[in-house]
């Protein structure tokens, strides 16, 4: 179970994963060694699964962002065999779903032409339906532990 210190650490690390143990200790009112021990425990229990930078696709030359709904079944299904997409760096996330579609694939490309090429490639795995992302009014935000 998570106590208030664990919850405060998770919240602070989601806001800025680069915070030092000293700064985390100051924010959550415990010692740096306690912070180090707690963070290691949160990592070991799977509450913290990684650390990464959030990158704006437009700034790095991939201004076309789309969500592709997929219906696929059998040996070519990307949710059963996600390794089928290993050679597609444009695919940045796949979410497996219930209902009439099996997944939503988030892609980032350099152009509409590249998006079209990618959609053709994804169609080899099943039926696709895509939607371009115009903006993100609610960007990623931290998950607050209950």
UniProtKB/TrEMBL annotation:
Listed name of the protein: Lrp/AsnC family transcriptional regulator
**Xref: Pfam families:** AsnC_trans_reg (PF01037), HTH_AsnC-type (PF13404)
Q: Which organism is it from?
A: Lentzea rhizosphaerae
Q: Where is the HTH asnC-type domain?
A: 2-63
Is this entry keyworded DNA-binding?
A: yes
Q: Which domain of life is it from?
A: Bacteria
Query: Does the keyword field hold Repeat?
Result: no
InterPro entries per UniProt:
ArsR-like_HTH (IPR011991), AsnC-type_HTH_dom (IPR000485), Dimeric_a/b-barrel (IPR011008), Tscrpt_reg_AsnC-like (IPR019888), Tscrpt_reg_AsnC/Lrp_C (IPR019887), WH-like_DNA-bd_sf (IPR036388), WH_DNA-bd_sf (IPR036390)
PROSITE patterns the record matches: HTH_ASNC_2
PANTHER family reported for this sequence: HTH-TYPE TRANSCRIPTIONAL REGULATOR LRPC, LEUCINE-RESPONSIVE REGULATORY PROTEIN
Q: What keywords are annotated for this sequence in UniProt?
A: DNA-binding, Transcription, Transcription regulation
